[in-house]
Amino acid sequence: MKTHWNWLEGVVFIASCVLVALVMGYLAVDAWTTGSGPPDLTVRVGAPVAAANAKEWRVPVTVTNHGDSAAEEVHVRVSLRGGREPKEVAEFVLAYVPRHSQREAWVAFRQEPPPEGVEAHAVGFATP
Protein backbone atom coordinates (compact mmCIF):
# COMPACT_ATOMS: atom_id res chain seq x y z
CA MET A 1 0.00 0.00 0.00
CA LYS A 2 1.43 3.31 -1.08
CA THR A 3 0.71 6.46 0.92
CA HIS A 4 0.79 9.89 -0.64
CA TRP A 5 2.36 12.82 1.12
CA ASN A 6 0.46 15.97 1.63
CA TRP A 7 2.31 19.00 0.20
CA LEU A 8 2.50 20.56 3.71
CA GLU A 9 4.19 17.43 5.07
CA GLY A 10 6.77 17.62 2.31
CA VAL A 11 7.53 21.30 2.95
CA VAL A 12 7.85 20.76 6.70
CA PHE A 13 10.10 17.71 6.18
CA ILE A 14 12.42 19.53 3.75
CA ALA A 15 12.55 22.66 5.93
CA SER A 16 13.41 20.65 9.04
CA CYS A 17 16.16 18.74 7.19
CA VAL A 18 17.67 22.02 5.97
CA LEU A 19 17.46 23.51 9.46
CA VAL A 20 19.17 20.50 11.06
CA ALA A 21 21.91 20.58 8.40
CA LEU A 22 22.51 24.31 8.96
CA VAL A 23 22.76 23.90 12.75
CA MET A 24 25.16 20.97 12.39
CA GLY A 25 27.27 22.98 9.93
CA TYR A 26 27.37 25.99 12.26
CA LEU A 27 28.44 23.84 15.21
CA ALA A 28 31.13 22.13 13.13
CA VAL A 29 32.56 25.45 11.88
CA ASP A 30 32.45 26.94 15.39
CA ALA A 31 34.27 23.93 16.85
CA TRP A 32 36.85 23.98 14.06
CA THR A 33 37.67 27.70 14.21
CA THR A 34 37.55 28.29 17.98
CA GLY A 35 40.91 28.27 19.69
CA SER A 36 41.66 26.56 22.95
CA GLY A 37 43.40 29.43 24.71
CA PRO A 38 42.85 30.35 28.34
CA PRO A 39 40.39 33.04 29.52
CA ASP A 40 41.63 36.61 29.05
CA LEU A 41 39.83 38.79 31.60
CA THR A 42 39.75 42.57 31.70
CA VAL A 43 37.97 44.59 34.38
CA ARG A 44 36.50 48.05 33.72
CA VAL A 45 35.09 50.42 36.35
CA GLY A 46 32.23 52.82 35.63
CA ALA A 47 31.27 56.14 37.17
CA PRO A 48 30.24 56.09 40.86
CA VAL A 49 26.57 56.68 41.69
CA ALA A 50 25.32 57.95 45.04
CA ALA A 51 22.81 55.67 46.75
CA ALA A 52 19.34 56.94 47.62
CA ASN A 53 20.12 56.86 51.35
CA ALA A 54 23.32 58.92 50.76
CA LYS A 55 25.29 56.60 53.04
CA GLU A 56 27.10 54.72 50.30
CA TRP A 57 28.42 55.03 46.78
CA ARG A 58 27.82 52.32 44.19
CA VAL A 59 30.28 51.63 41.40
CA PRO A 60 29.48 49.51 38.32
CA VAL A 61 32.12 46.97 37.31
CA THR A 62 32.26 45.16 33.96
CA VAL A 63 34.31 41.97 33.53
CA THR A 64 35.03 41.03 29.90
CA ASN A 65 36.42 37.69 28.77
CA HIS A 66 38.35 38.07 25.50
CA GLY A 67 39.67 34.50 25.67
CA ASP A 68 38.63 31.35 23.85
CA SER A 69 37.45 29.48 26.95
CA ALA A 70 35.10 30.27 29.82
CA ALA A 71 36.10 31.28 33.34
CA GLU A 72 34.35 30.12 36.51
CA GLU A 73 34.42 31.55 40.02
CA VAL A 74 36.00 34.84 38.93
CA HIS A 75 37.17 36.75 42.01
CA VAL A 76 37.33 40.52 41.46
CA ARG A 77 38.81 43.04 43.90
CA VAL A 78 37.87 46.73 43.69
CA SER A 79 39.70 49.30 45.82
CA LEU A 80 39.62 53.03 46.51
CA ARG A 81 43.07 54.49 46.29
CA GLY A 82 44.17 57.07 48.83
CA GLY A 83 47.94 57.11 48.69
CA ARG A 84 49.94 53.92 49.06
CA GLU A 85 47.33 51.97 50.97
CA PRO A 86 43.77 51.51 49.72
CA LYS A 87 41.14 53.42 51.70
CA GLU A 88 38.48 50.79 51.19
CA VAL A 89 38.31 47.41 49.43
CA ALA A 90 35.32 45.49 48.05
CA GLU A 91 35.32 42.03 46.50
CA PHE A 92 32.80 39.93 44.60
CA VAL A 93 32.66 36.61 42.78
CA LEU A 94 31.12 35.96 39.37
CA ALA A 95 29.99 32.37 38.99
CA TYR A 96 30.60 32.11 35.24
CA VAL A 97 31.95 34.33 32.45
CA PRO A 98 31.55 32.66 29.01
CA ARG A 99 34.09 33.10 26.24
CA HIS A 100 33.88 36.33 24.24
CA SER A 101 31.30 37.87 26.60
CA GLN A 102 30.96 40.22 29.54
CA ARG A 103 29.26 40.30 32.93
CA GLU A 104 28.32 43.31 35.04
CA ALA A 105 28.27 43.75 38.81
CA TRP A 106 28.12 46.56 41.36
CA VAL A 107 30.18 47.25 44.48
CA ALA A 108 29.34 49.65 47.31
CA PHE A 109 31.71 51.94 49.25
CA ARG A 110 31.07 54.03 52.35
CA GLN A 111 33.42 56.81 51.21
CA GLU A 112 32.96 58.89 48.08
CA PRO A 113 35.24 57.49 45.34
CA PRO A 114 37.63 60.12 43.98
CA PRO A 115 37.83 60.53 40.19
CA GLU A 116 40.33 58.06 38.75
CA GLY A 117 40.79 56.67 42.26
CA VAL A 118 39.01 53.34 41.79
CA GLU A 119 41.09 50.33 40.77
CA ALA A 120 39.79 46.88 39.90
CA HIS A 121 41.37 43.63 38.78
CA ALA A 122 40.59 39.94 38.57
CA VAL A 123 42.33 38.16 41.42
CA GLY A 124 41.72 34.62 40.22
CA PHE A 125 39.45 32.24 38.33
CA ALA A 126 38.93 28.57 37.58
CA THR A 127 38.55 26.93 34.19
CA PRO A 128 35.72 24.46 33.58
Automatic annotation (TrEMBL):
Is Membrane tagged as a keyword? yes
Q: Does the keyword Transmembrane helix apply?
A: yes
Question: Which Gene3D superfamilies does this UniProt record tie to the protein?
Answer: Immunoglobulins (2.60.40.10)
List the keywords (alphabetical): Membrane, Transmembrane, Transmembrane helix
Please state what the protein is called. TIGR02588 family protein
Q: Which residues cross the membrane?
A: 7-29
Going by the entry's taxonomy, the superkingdom of the source organism is recorded as: Bacteria
